[in-house]
């Protein structure tokens, strides 16, 4: 899809705060509110905007702990990787899962209310996915930055 300057500005703005009204966005992008709505609808329909979500402050929901996990598998056969991917995608505690290069095969970001809950999840993962050979865990002591925004350059040349 070819994104023009207005699309790129809109994408950056809605990633900062999707709750802005079309009127508020129009004031910043120099388009009419109806043009803003049409562009956002097109960006959603074409899959540029995959979904919209709220970012919840962990302090207000029981201060969950974040775990960063390096996961290794025994064999990288496509059907075994597909099974593990489906399992990870189905777990609400798994916030992010990346298939990566390097020592680990996957890097996961997991949230849990405490280490006991995390341990139970990982025990279930190993039991239900025999291809998992080992994992390492880092516990986040504090969150410096948390987000999913993709910086969209103002033009294709940037």
Automatic annotation (TrEMBL):
Q: Which PROSITE patterns match?
A: HTH_ASNC_1, HTH_ASNC_2
Source organism of the structure: Marilutibacter chinensis
State the name under which the record lists this protein: Lrp/AsnC family transcriptional regulator
Q: SMART domains per the record?
A: HTH_ASNC
Pfam family, any one: AsnC_trans_reg
Keywords (alphabetical) are: DNA-binding, Transcription, Transcription regulation
Q: What is the lineage of its organism?
A: Bacteria, Pseudomonadati, Pseudomonadota, Gammaproteobacteria, Lysobacterales
Q: Which InterPro entries match?
A: AsnC-type_HTH_dom, Dimeric_a/b-barrel, Tscrpt_reg_AsnC-like, Tscrpt_reg_AsnC/Lrp_C, Tscrpt_reg_HTH_AsnC-type_CS, WH-like_DNA-bd_sf, WH_DNA-bd_sf
Q: Does the keyword DNA-binding apply?
A: yes
Q: Which positions fall inside the HTH asnC-type domain?
A: 3-64
State whether keyword DNA-binding applies.
Answer: yes
């Amino acid at each position: 899809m070819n994104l023009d300057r207005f699309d790129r500005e809109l994408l950056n703005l809605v990633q900062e705060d999707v709750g802005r009204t079309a009127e508020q966005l129009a004031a910043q992008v120099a388009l009419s509110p109806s043009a803003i709505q049409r562009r956002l609808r097109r960006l959603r329909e074409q899959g540029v905007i995959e979904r919209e979500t709220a970012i919840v402050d962990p302090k207000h929901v029981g201060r969950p702990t974040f775990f960063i996990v390096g996961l290794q598998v025994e064999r990288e056969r496509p059907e075994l990787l597909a099974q593990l991917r489906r399992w990870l995608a189905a777990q609400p505690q798994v916030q992010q899962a990346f298939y990566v290069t390097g020592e680990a095969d996957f890097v996961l970001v997991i949230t849990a209310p405490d280490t006991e809950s995390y341990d139970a999840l990982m025990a279930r993962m190993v039991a239900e996915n025999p291809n998992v050979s080992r994992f390492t865990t880092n516990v986040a002591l504090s969150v410096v930055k948390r987000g999913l925004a993709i910086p969209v350059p103002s033009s294709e040349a940037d």
